[in-house]
Hints:
The two termini are 16 Å apart. Strands 1, 2, 3, 4, 5, 6, 14, 15, 16, 17, 18 and 19 form a twelve-stranded mixed beta sheet that branches. By secondary structure, the chain is α/β, with parallel strands linked by helices. It has three domains: 276 residues, 3-Layer(aba) Sandwich (Rossmann fold); 117 residues, 2-Layer Sandwich (Domain 2, N(10)-formyltetrahydrofolate synthetase); 83 residues, Formyltetrahydrofolate synthetase, domain 3 (Roll), CATH 3.10.410.10. It contains 19 helices and 25 strands. Helices cover 35% and strands 19% of the residues. Helix 4 crosses helix 17 and helix 14 packs parallel to helix 15.
Amino acid sequence: MPKSDIEIAREATMQPINEIGERIGIPADALLHYGPTKAKVSYEFINSLKNKRDGKLILVTAITPTPAGEGKTTTSVGLTDGLNRIGKKVVVCLREPSLGPCFGMKGGAAGGGYAQVVPMEDINLHFTGDFHAIGVAHNLLSALIDNHFYWGNKLGIDARRVGWKRVVDMNDRALRQITCNLGGIANGFPREDGFDITVASEIMAIFCLATDLDDLTKRIGNIVVGFTRDRKPVVAKQLKGHGPMAVLLKDALMPNLVQTLENNPAFIHGGPFANIAHGCNSVVATKTALKLADYVITEAGFGADLGAEKFFDIKCRKANLKPSAVVIVATVRALKMHGGVGKSDLDRENVAAVKKGCENLGRHIKNIKSFGVIPLVAINSFITDTRKELNAIKVLAKKLGAEAVICSHWADGGAGTEELARQVVKVVESGKSKFKPLYPDAMKLEDKVRTVAQKIYGAKDISFDANVARQFADFEAGGYGRFPVCMAKTQYSFSTDPNAKGAPKGFTVPIRELRLSAGAEFVVVVTGDIMTMPGLPSMPAANNIYLNKKGQIEGLF
């Protein structure tokens, strides 16, 4: 019986974090230790790198997710190890896992098999406390808002137009909509409120887009918390919230350094979801890694229609990043599901279903090319895959202009991605990628949303009611029209219907509401039935997580 991810991680021979840092030029005195195998990198050292030349940036994304699994983080780690094996100096930059999915349905996000980042248990749980700092900073602003109401509301905030919720890093549907300040006059003025999951917080988005502490503080001060009765915005700096919130985030903004199972450096920092936020690790971590390595591997959440689009149109636009290549992860099993095969039949050979499912892969390839970046396909192989099924993907990808490489990193670690690593180097050294965002800053918000829906999702058009139309007009009038849009959409389909597999087209994308993230400098566009506070499934992963008699964690994956 194969070993579980946690068993493999527990058997890892980790090197002291000083040695990992030394390999990429980080001196021991620039590391702030959180035990022997985790550390934060000091601001002083990061600032000393400003004049160094940047390495090359490679994005790992994926086809549309299915219950069969794709393995994007596993591939990011495996490719990092593979590139190091062929003599490149490489750092991987990943997001920190949220506790919600860890104890919900998805599990952790530290890779799998022999392509993991370690210490796996720490990374998947509290790690260095970044998420707690983000949650506390967010909720401090929530407390300041209600305190402002209690002491007279001098700013004239309309209680009906407060847009700043509270957050918690757990899936808890009971908190989506609440009434707060109950219990009489001593507790304040009752009003409706709600909770989002921490990874959906604008503080998380700001944390991952800020370039330094000054930028972080400025962005927090620009957060629009609500509006007055005459619809004038009220921002966090008017409540004097930006200073203390930045203090709470002072240590958290330093990137976290850990290692892969093959002792290669990994920055894991920040963690917005890609279906309800922008889905990328921090700009600080990515830019620091680019100064220290020849190649930086990073990932964006869920499928390329969400994570990659936001990586390009939000993160790269805001941070002036220019990716040199993109790896799209696919599996035979997932493509068969997109081809109409049920989960119980995935182990049977079905070349016809693979070919039909490649319509999904094909659209992602086409979309990546529309940004001017050369895509490669990583086929994350399973033992049940047949040669005919694997060859079908390679042939179809080739017809669409993308080289497909079979990878076995889950079982073989970096040795299983050496061919993919060589192909990545070939694309990067060709210099053919000429990155460009999908739309210009000057395009109107409504047209930006329509452009993403039509050019990336394959939609016929978007639809919205009078309230959303007014939001579009108000945001344009308020000077926010130059912001990019951050689409909140189901990750399971190009459309807003999670059951529409493959590559649906000709549908309409319904816009439910817009949410202004003035500090993060984007506008969140909520579509369909997407929720910013997930719920737990009927059988949550938490049911199988426990401490054994040795005090070791069991059931984490």
